[in-house]
Each structure stands twice: as structure tokens, then as C-alpha cells.
Amino acid sequence: MPKRLLWKLLGVNILALCFIIVIVWLAVDYLAAGYFIALMKKYNISPTASHQMFLEAVHRYLLWASIGGVGLASVLSLLIVHRLLRPLEQMTHIAGEIAAGQYSHLVPITSTDEIGKLASAFNRMAASLDRIEQLRKKLMIDVAHELRSPLTNIRGYLEALVDGVVPASRETFQLILEQTLRLAELVEDILRLARADAAEDHLQTEEIQLSSLIRNGLDSFSARLQAKDITVDLDLTAAEAPVMVDPQRISQVLRNLLENVCQYTPTGGRFRIVATRGTDAIQVLFANSGGGLSESDVPFIFERFYRGEKSRSRVHGGAGIGLAIVKELIHAHRGEVGAEVTADETRVWFTLPL
User: Is the pTM of the predicted complex or chain greater than 0.90?
Assistant: First the structure.
């Protein structure tokens, strides 16, 4: 228990009570006594002896009343202050546990006053720290898992070359190069994700037509879309009006979404982009046929390293970071992201405030 604060609060209460007692004492000596003498003189009674008796009686009862009042005030103040400070004592203890890495302890909430609100906010903070710690641990595991695969392959090829199991041919070095490029791409994805996490503090916004960014992004993917004979439908009328965004960040969002479309839309499939404008936001929908996702995957597809379609291996698919980057960059713009799966389409959308 924070004893210093307890005794400080108790001392303040006692000092206030003592101050009131002193004021009453002086009032009796100078005001009440004066009125008493005036009253005695009015009735022709000698005030000297009576005045002394009056003061002694009043002082005696005031002294006993003061002792009782201070004692009662001390007990009540001690109980009340101790009850008020108990949650603070628990918060201090639990804060020490959190500092040691234990996030499961919560402060009991026994009231709805300011102390109760503080305890509730403290519990939310502890829960948030616990969630962040779990995400950090999961991220470290996922990163290690993703890095292990190409590193293991590279090590295997190199050991085979040293032992003479495989020839030092162009094909072998090409395989090693592919694994090295996979490793470099994964590291670059992680760096892009780290930059996306910090994007909110480094946005360089300007007025720009969202439709222009979308068309520019499509132009860079046109060869891949044509190679898979994917039909593209556009409805960008609502995106013609300018919006305040960071063009570089939103271009990254569009590239990641188009990368998913090119990778997971089946040959001969369809793909559409639809922009709709609301009162305070604009929504852009990316919808493609196929995709291989189920309803159970939807809540997790924006999580880091998540791959819903089990056939999306690390060779065929990415590391599962692309949509996580999309979420971070859109949230940096104070927007929202979402997804849904229908019988024939996979739909991913984002909104940007107007």
C-alpha cells in the first residue's frame, strides 16, 4: 500500500478538522464570551465568575468533542482512503508484473467512479500489451519459418555441390539463384511491412484522382492479365473526383491487390474494379473470380503471413504479407479494409475518407 499517500491524505483531513476546531475555539473566546458578558450586565449579574465558569465549561466540552471528532474523522478517513488507494496498490503490483512480462493479471473493478474507470483503462492497456506481445511472438515465429525454407534449400544445394552429389552445372546454380531471390524478396516484403507500420507519421498527401492511380497500376499489370486471358471490367466514375492521399502509399496498395488478382484469378477468369462514393468516404472494390478462399479465411486474410488457400505454397504464392501491408497503409490514411467471399467471387475492398 502506498503509505506515504495514505498518511498525506489522512493528515490533510486532520489538519482541516483542527483548523475548524481552532476557529470555533476562538469564536467562543471572543464572540460568544462577549455576548455572554453583555447578557449578564443587562440583568445586573456580576459576569466575572459566571464568565469564567462559562469558558471552562465550553472549553471542556469543546476539547472532548474535538478529541472525539478527530478520532472519528481519523478512523473514517483511514478506512475511506485505504479503500480508495487499494486499486492503486493493485495497479502498482500488476504494473510490476507487466514489466516482468506477465500480462494476464487484471485489476478487480469494484466501483464505477473515477478509480473504477482508471482500473478499467488499466485492464484495457494490459490486454492490449498482451495482444501486442502475442503478435510479436507470432511474428518472430512466422519470420523464422519463412526464412528457414529458402535457407535450407540453399544449404542443401551447396552441401550437395561440395560433396559432389550434384554437378556444378548452370541448372544447379540457377536453382540456388532462385532460392536466393526468394530470400531477398521475403526480406524486402518484411521491410515494406515495417515501413507500412510507420506510414501514418510519414504520409505525404496531395490531391490526386484515384482513378488515375488505378489505371496506372493496371497498365503495369496488363501483360500478366492478358497472358492469363483475364477479362477486366472497370467502373471508376466515383473515383474521378480528387482525394487527399499519399500517391506512393496508395500505389503500393493497388500493386499488392493487383498482384493478388493476377496470381489467384484462374486463366480465362474475370476481374472488376468498382468505385462507389459515400457521404464521407470512397470505396474501391477489387472482385475476381476464383481465389480459393472460404468464409473461415475472411477474418484472417489481412493478418501477417496468413495464407488461406493451402495450395498457395511459398514457391507459388507470396509470404502472406501483401494484404497486411494493404491494411496498414489504408489505416494510416484513416480508412478501412474488408473482404468477403461469394459463390463465384473473392472481393477485397478499401475505403478512404473524403
Answer: no
